[in-house]
Amino acid sequence: MRKLLNNPVIVIPLACFALLWLLHNYGLTQYLLKQFVGQTRRVDAAPFVQNNKANASTKSEKAMGTLVADRWLISSWARTSIAKNEPFVANGLQKKSELPDTLEIEIEIEDEEMVVVDKETFDAALVSTLGLDQKGYFVVFENVLNQPVRKRVGDVIYLEGSGPLMIPTFGIAEARRTSEEIRVLAESMLANFSLLGVGAEEVADEESSFSENSMNIAFIQLADGRTGIFKQGDLVARDPHLGLDQVIKGVGQDTVVLVDQYANKYSLSSGYSEN
Question: Among the residues of the chain, which ranges form H helices?
């Protein structure tokens, strides 16, 4: 083995091969090749650059001419090539993330239940648009689509400048009574009410009237002689609170169902009252 290593015929070719392999592995051969090509192109491009300097009419052409003359682009490409072939550098290079062919844009559709109001509108609504149905008290607001929507205690609305707000309670001015006390008071009050008729706020045809999807109304004469037009959920009386819950169109006789805060039901038919 020692004789072989001391033999120039064997050692010199192996050394040359190892040197060429190192030059190629570290990118030096590409660098020397680019240097040689750059020198050749520089000589060839010199007259072109000289002529272009006289004819350049825009800033971009002048800048490109300067880069070609100074061989900035060729040197930059050579440095990049060497860095990519350097084993200690290439492993640390990160590829730029490519954009997808199609960008999926998620459009957030506003919820029909979303309400955004200012503080003054919120305070006024708690008093002026209070209603009552079988589920309990609610306040009518306008959603972001400018449509009426019912909000109850515990529901979330959005105050301008303050963010989300959970409705804590409603300011209901009524004496605290038991369910039976409310029932007795409501029955005595309804004895002085009269149902004059029922209808629908927006009637498209007979099939769509008096359905769950239409806004049914009732014409009720109150104890003081005034006639009120009430929608489903409206308060018919405030002490005790009685809300219009159902409107039923009958043959020759119409009927409405009212509820109190304890969900007790009271029916009132046209021509007479019924408990």
Answer: 2-5, 8-25, 28-55, 59-69, 72-85, 87-90, 119-128, 179-190
Sign, Cα dihedral of 48, 50, 56, 59: positive
Residues 112-126 pLDDT 10s: 889 999 999 998 888
- Report pLDDT for 104: 46
End-to-end CA distance of the chain: 120
270 DSSP assignment: B
> Could you tell me if 256 and 268 are in contact, meaning their C-beta atoms sit under 8 angstroms apart?
yes
pLDDT at 38: 56
Rounded to two decimals, the pTM is 0.52
Q: Is the dihedral of CA 52, 53, 58, 63 positive or negative?
A: positive
| Burial class (CB within 10 angstroms; exposed 0-12, middle 13-18, buried 19+) of 234 | buried
Closest C-alpha to 258, from 238, 239, 224, 232: 232
The predicted pLDDT at position 10 comes to 72
> Which pLDDT belongs to residue 152?
93
